[in-house]
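Complex 378.
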Amino acid sequence: TLFERAFTNKRFGTHLNVEIGERLTHADLTAHHHAVIYAVGASSSRPLDIPGEHLPGNHAAAQFVGWYNGHPDHSGAEFDLSGERAVIVGNGNVALDVARVLLMSPDQLGQTDIAQHALDALAHSNIREVVIIARRGPRAAAFSVGEFLALGHLDGVDVLIEGCDPAVHLAADPGDDVETAAKLDLARRYAERAPTPGNKRVVFHFLSTPTEVLGDDRVEGLRVTGTDDGAVTDLATTLLLRSIGYRGTRQPGLEFDEATGVVPNEHGRVLGADGQPVPGVYVTGWIKRGPRGVIGTNRICAEETVAKLFEDFDAGALTRAVGSRDALCDLLAERELTPVDWTGWRGIDSAERERGAGSARPRVKFVAIDEMLSAAEK
Ligand code: NAP
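Predicted structure with NAP bound:
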């Protein structure tokens, strides 16, 4: 793999399956390292803050993504796939990923590394239409052009554009940047295409603001209001997924900005309560700058953080006396933690691939931590 060279370097140590907070604290980390970088991402979901949001059948898209990716925290989640329509609020790349998974055929899904429980559940799904609710127009759509294009290549799926006037909202404007111009061009082509009878569909419902989740005991629909004209539309559905962005969570031992959901920092250097950099503590990725950007953005973000760490090293700011690598290993054992090293990770990886070989799948993922630990020990 891409990481093999770094991870097999003798100067590199890996302690996976260790959660920072209770049995091992931030103070333990800084007591054993000259520098600590948090790259913990943003794993919680923002609420919609509309009536009816508490009803069962309304889920965060992040939970659905965790479920189909086999994340141990979400593998027991259940989604009602018995209706013909699912509604997704928000039109970022996560919404498009979710729409794709909901509409792909079991054969296509089987060629991916989707979790087996999700593959089994989706094989019996009745969903034929996914409606994506966007509160603004196509020009302001949050998805990337590549993901929008990929939707149009799904076998047996039509892409429909609704809720906006093509002559006004899909018209080219010389002031548009390249990405926006490409998105609008694609949207125009989708809008002109006649739907194929019998196909499944993904419907982009632009300029629609969600105002109420409908239902008595569980989700029965979503009420949306026209952003420009105030027209009210009720969309019947039993599966509502909100895909309106992620949010970082407070890290024990670090300051946290509740308004933005990030750890306060200056170019990756973590700031303390006094607004001054905390020596030797850094952040990178979504916990540093919020849940935006694709993988390449995170790479640039990490380079900036590491450059600051090197600057601090060169300035002699990372010279505290700290515990040795062996002392850290002793501490992990003392706290009864079960760290997995790189050899263990390889063990899990090859066991998953072997499980997949039997059923012609790239891999069958483990979704329970104890199963992963037994594979790591082999
Ligand atoms: P996102 O790109 O920030 O999109 C969030 C969407 O939710 C926007 O359409 C936003 O509309 C809408 N929204 C926010 N609050 C809302 C509200 N109260 N009511 C209705 N709609 C609301 O978030 P994301 O899709 O979770 O993606 C997160 C990041 O991961 C993005 O940078 C994305 O590109 C990246 N990502 C990339 C890939 C990939 O490259 N394949 C895959 C997954 C994720 P407004 O624009 O009107 O606010």
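The first strand starts at residue 36 and ends at 38.
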